[in-house]
Amino acid sequence: MNLRIEQWDEIKIHFDKMFHGLGKVETSEELVKFSSIEPYVCTGISLSKNGTMAASMPLHNLDSTFNAVEFNQSLEVLTLVGNGFCYTYRIPDELLVLREAVNQ
To answer: CA-CA distance, 98 to 53, in Å (whole number)?
Structure first.
């Protein structure tokens, strides 16, 4: 599902579904944020309504701007697209097992 930043309310809905049960999810009118909890792999991503983003995965951190978000069908991957910028965030396998436990 490809969403423009102007579709912020839909982005918030899909972001919440993607990360539900995998750690701490914060949602407001201006920001969505996910961060894992111990003892699982340390990772997180935040998106703002004005198009800024920050992401951290083991061995890297990233701050940039975007104007579109693409969620894959399984809600395991999101891709942020901006001018000359494309970043893909994948939920680590160590966290996806939590989703399986919630769905059982």
So the answer is: 25
Give the position of tokens 């423009």.
4
**Element (H or E) spanning 1, and its range?**
none
Scanning the structure block, which residue is given the tokens 């003892």? 39
Q: CA 45 to CA 69: how far, in whole Å? A: 13
Tell me the two tokens of residue 8: 């912020």
Tell me the domain boundaries of the chain.
2-102
pTM to 2 decimal places: 0.86
Amino acid at 38: E
What confidence tens digit (pLDDT) does each residue in 62-88 have? 778 899 999 999 999 999 999 888 999
Beta strand 68-71 with 60-65 is: unpaired
Per the listing, tokens 């998106």 go with 47
